[in-house]
Amino acid sequence: MIEIGTQVDLPHPADRVWRAVTDPALLARWFAGAEAVPDRPGRWRVGTAGLPGFDGDVEIAAVRQRAPELLVVRCVEGTRHTELTFVLTTTAEGCRVTVRETVQQGDWSAGQGARREECYRQSLAGRLPALLDWLAFREVDLRRDSAAPTAVLPVALMADVARPSTRGRTGWVVVGSGTAALALGLAGWALLPPEREEPTGAAPVAPSVRPTATPSPSRSVVSARPTSAPPSRSAPPSRSPSATPSRTPTPTPAVAGPLDARYATVSTRVFGYTGEVVVANPGATPATGWTVVVTLPRGSSAAEVTGADWRQDGQSVTFTGPAVAAGGTQAIRFDVRTADPVTKAPQGCTLDERPCAGL
């Protein structure tokens, strides 16, 4: 039995994620469009043709569901039959999304399963959080403390989502003055390239040189009593002392010093930012076994990590990685999703329990 899967933590409640998964209009915003199959009740066709790891569109039918915790669907893609399981688990910060797909009939070609798994991961960790942030934005009472609504969000922000309801509601969202720019930033967040901010390196400090004391020349002592001159004799030639060869000092092997780490926020978004920790090895030997721990604000989650292995436990994200070459660096970059539009940096950062620079 062939199985693929992925998992991501999101700072959003399970019911909001469930809505984004089961509403066809919302599903189209972060994964692929879905439409009902004519004359086949309960069947939906998902437009996955062209997505990495897919041979064409997939026809799905629900097998089991328990809102907002579990959804199991049977997928038919040509002659291949698979079962896709979607599990939502509530956490202290939001919820954990686990996706697992198992082949029941047929097979995947070489590398197709890995590409399909990566497609799921990028959709869950990248595009889905952007949509969830937009849904959270709609739920905020933007008219609080204002006299009257003065602006209307353009319908283009959710052209495929804001459908008129059967009760005559238009699907437009009325907001207070000054919030349209915030909503536009949400809509284009996932399409903007990250703005890299190079961390400012500390200027090198010249080593202090301690002056060596110059010994004062010795004074010759002259006797006050004259001495009688000895009888004149031919003085034997004095022997010149042979020069003692100088010894070349044996170089002392360099001892690797402690690693250094510096944090920087390289780009920001409305509900998140991209952080980077650069681990530097100033020593003369490779350094292994290092650990970087970044403490995020409550309700935040990390994703899209490059440069290190990682795990998140509550607010703490632990990074471990390869050996850092002598005089070299190792960069760790990660995205942070947060419901707080103000905070754009972690609460703390340590390298082997020593504080990182830059915070």
Automatic annotation (TrEMBL):
<dbReference type="InterPro" id="IPR019587">
    <property type="entry name" value="Polyketide_cyclase/dehydratase"/>
</dbReference>
<dbReference type="InterPro" id="IPR001919">
    <property type="entry name" value="CBD2"/>
</dbReference>
<dbReference type="Pfam" id="PF10604">
    <property type="entry name" value="Polyketide_cyc2"/>
</dbReference>
<feature type="region of interest" description="Disordered">
    <location>
        <begin position="195"/>
        <end position="260"/>
    </location>
</feature>
<dbReference type="InterPro" id="IPR023393">
    <property type="entry name" value="START-like_dom_sf"/>
</dbReference>
<dbReference type="InterPro" id="IPR008965">
    <property type="entry name" value="CBM2/CBM3_carb-bd_dom_sf"/>
</dbReference>
<feature type="compositionally biased region" description="Low complexity">
    <location>
        <begin position="206"/>
        <end position="249"/>
    </location>
</feature>
<protein>
    <submittedName>
        <fullName>SRPBCC domain-containing protein</fullName>
    </submittedName>
</protein>
<dbReference type="Pfam" id="PF00553">
    <property type="entry name" value="CBM_2"/>
</dbReference>
<feature type="domain" description="CBM2">
    <location>
        <begin position="250"/>
        <end position="359"/>
    </location>
</feature>
<dbReference type="InterPro" id="IPR012291">
    <property type="entry name" value="CBM2_carb-bd_dom_sf"/>
</dbReference>
